[in-house]
């Protein structure tokens, strides 16, 4: 049954029309099903979900809220996908207004349950009857890798900054053991069978009971840490900046989890720098090093890459895997500077350099130590004057052509005096609409986003410091003059707005999920070829329910399965548990964020 016939999702389909349905709508000839919902059991003996009787203890056994990154790994590392596989998902944040029947919970109960709904889930899944379909199986002693990583799970800090004084707290005087992970956004699977996940909007979790520590005024400011969090200090004092000024320094890292070692604590890699990490994706360079591409999702922040000092161990046995799990602790961290070649050629393109920030032993930033650079990477990068980008989200190497694709989701500040346009961030205004069929109107800044394509041009390829770039997509409604679809006929493409996560099928086609569509309709997932006569032909493959963003996309199982996350269905201004705007997936009278799989409907 696992025979690889393949290719289904690389074939032609008719694009889904933009819509406002409270449903997942796939291209004709395809269907989708829910694999796992918020509250479903993850660990053996999990408490049955009851929206009216939620507890932190129950949540720590169940699938958390707001699934974002989606990885699918073979049950046995190094082997092809069998009939069972491991699904690895993170839980970015919580929508308390949609999660609780308000009258039955105290404020502190709500906070404690919300805290427990963050983290990650690892669970065994199984092929369904329809080719390409997958389903959740009941956790038991036969699913030994099922695991819920939550706010109490210990993470080991590793790399050059681990143990630094600025990472120490009362609970952890060593500065090496952090409880939990928050704001996890995108991620990636490594060639050695682990999963990376980015701690993104961690700044919003910290409150203050008094003054902020004056030692960190500039650092807090650059990271948006203002002490206006979610009030969690009333249930856990570590979220009080006045009490624990170093706790926020322990977040904003890339996390690595080995789903095949369920008893091994996950890690946070200081060598990959600290910022609002969207995610991290690895490619092995021609000379054998692990190269990690990363984005800092903030208006005007940067693209980064890391090249490991050691080479990837090609053995798939335990010794090889253990060696590779050290790769992200030593190497060189870079930030990108892009230079345009001018507008005469009618294209937004040019060349670029990766600027060295530090290695594990040497800082290249004047006045900053290696630990300074890694803990306050944004401030270090500022000193090298890299290119301020329009919110770098997923940055992912295409395994077929080796080029790098970065989603630059939008930037309402672009064009202001503080952030002038440049060739890589060219739009100071863009066309948007408020509802399907409403007229296009002009808004300031870059509102629909870009997809940036990077080709490494140095002799050492991905491990080198030189590249060429172009904006392959200038997103928006194809009727808007500013849009560009890789040169493809704009009358034959789908409107696309706010690219967020990217993925590739085995033919090298780019798959894009969106978050925050400003063209008046729901978010969704799109496919676009990057080579040949159809380069730039963006077609919408599916739309997600009201208020949701589409996350994750992962084409796998010989191109038969598209996994994706429906994050925050019903998240619309004014929506509450009683007055929700969505009830998707329509199994209750309130919405439940879920991971789904789409496949051919035979
Ligand atoms: Fe959590 Fe940058 O999206
Ligand atoms: Ca140009
Ligand atoms: Ca994202
Ligand atoms: Ca997003």
From TrEMBL:
Section covered of the full-length record: 112 to 713 of 713
Region of interest: Disordered: 133-156
Protein name per the record: PhoX family phosphatase
Taxonomic superkingdom: Bacteria
């Amino acid at each position: 049954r696992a025979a690889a016939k393949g290719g289904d999702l690389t074939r032609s389909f008719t694009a889904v029309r933009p819509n406002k349905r409270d449903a997942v709508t796939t291209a004709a000839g395809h269907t989708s099903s829910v694999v796992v919902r918020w509250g479903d059991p993850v660990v053996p003996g999990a408490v049955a979900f009851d929206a009216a009787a939620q507890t932190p203890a129950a949540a720590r056994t169940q699938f958390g809220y707001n699934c974002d990154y989606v990885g699918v790994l073979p049950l046995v590392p190094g082997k092809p996908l069998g009939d069972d596989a491991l699904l690895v998902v993170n839980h970015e944040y919580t929508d308390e207004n949609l999660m609780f029947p308000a009258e039955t919970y105290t404020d502190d109960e709500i906070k404690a349950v919300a805290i427990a709904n963050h983290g990650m889930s690892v669970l065994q899944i199984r092929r369904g009857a329809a080719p390409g379909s997958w389903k959740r199986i009941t956790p038991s002693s036969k699913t030994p890798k099922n695991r819920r990583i939550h706010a109490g799970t210990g993470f080991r800090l590793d790399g050059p900054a681990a143990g630094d004084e600025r990472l120490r707290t009362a609970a952890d005087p060593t500065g090496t053991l952090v409880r939990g992970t928050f704001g996890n956004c995108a991620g990636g699977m490594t060639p050695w069978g682990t999963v990376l996940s980015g701690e993104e909007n961690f700044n919003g979790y910290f409150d203050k009971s008094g003054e902020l520590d004056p030692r960190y005024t500039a650092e807090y400011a650059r990271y948006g840490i203002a002490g206006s969090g979610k009030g969690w200090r009333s249930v856990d004092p570590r979220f009080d900046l006045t009490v624990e000024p170093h706790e926020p320094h322990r977040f904003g890292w890339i996390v690595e989890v080995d789903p095949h070692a369920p008893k091994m604590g996950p890690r946070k890699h200081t060598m990959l720098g600290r910022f609002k990490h969207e995610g991290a994706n690895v490619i092995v360079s021609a000379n054998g090093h692990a190269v990690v591409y990363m984005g800092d999702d903030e208006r005007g922040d940067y693209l980064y890459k890391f090249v490991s000092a050691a080479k990837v161990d090609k053995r798939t046995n335990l010794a090889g895997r253990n060696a590779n799990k050290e790769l992200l602790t030593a190497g060189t961290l870079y930030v990108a500077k892009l230079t345009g070649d001018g507008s005469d050629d009618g294209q937004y393109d040019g060349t670029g350099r990766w600027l060295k920030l530090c290695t594990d032993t040497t800082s290249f930033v004047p006045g900053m130590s290696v630990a300074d650079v890694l803990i306050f990477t944004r401030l270090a990068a500022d000193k090298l004057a890299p290119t301020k980008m329009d919110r770098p989200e997923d940055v992912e190497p295409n395994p077929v052509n080796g080029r790098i694709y970065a989603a630059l989701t939008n930037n309402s500040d672009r064009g202001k005096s503080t952030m002038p346009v440049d060739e890589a961030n060219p739009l100071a205004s863009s066309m948007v609409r408020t509802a399907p069929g409403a007229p296009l109107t002009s808004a300031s800044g870059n509102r629909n986003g870009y997809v940036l394509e990077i080709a490494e041009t140095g002799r050492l390829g991905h491990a080198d410091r030189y590249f060429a770039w172009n904006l392959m997509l200038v997103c928006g409604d194809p009727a808007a003059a500013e849009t560009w679809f890789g040169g493809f006929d704009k009358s034959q493409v789908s409107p696309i707005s706010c690219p967020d996560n990217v993925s590739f099928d085995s033919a090298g086609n780019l798959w894009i999920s969106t978050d925050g569509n400003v063209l008046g309709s729901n978010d969704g997932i799109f496919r676009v070829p990057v080579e040949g006569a159809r380069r730039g032909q963006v077609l919408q493959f599916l739309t997600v329910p009201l208020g949701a963003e589409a996350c994750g996309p992962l084409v796998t199982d010989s191109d038969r399965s598209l996994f994706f996350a429906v994050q925050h269905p019903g998240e619309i201004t004014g929506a509450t548990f009683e007055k929700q705007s969505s009830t998707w997936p329509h199994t209750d009278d309130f919405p439940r964020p879920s991971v789904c799989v789409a496949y051919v409907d035979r």
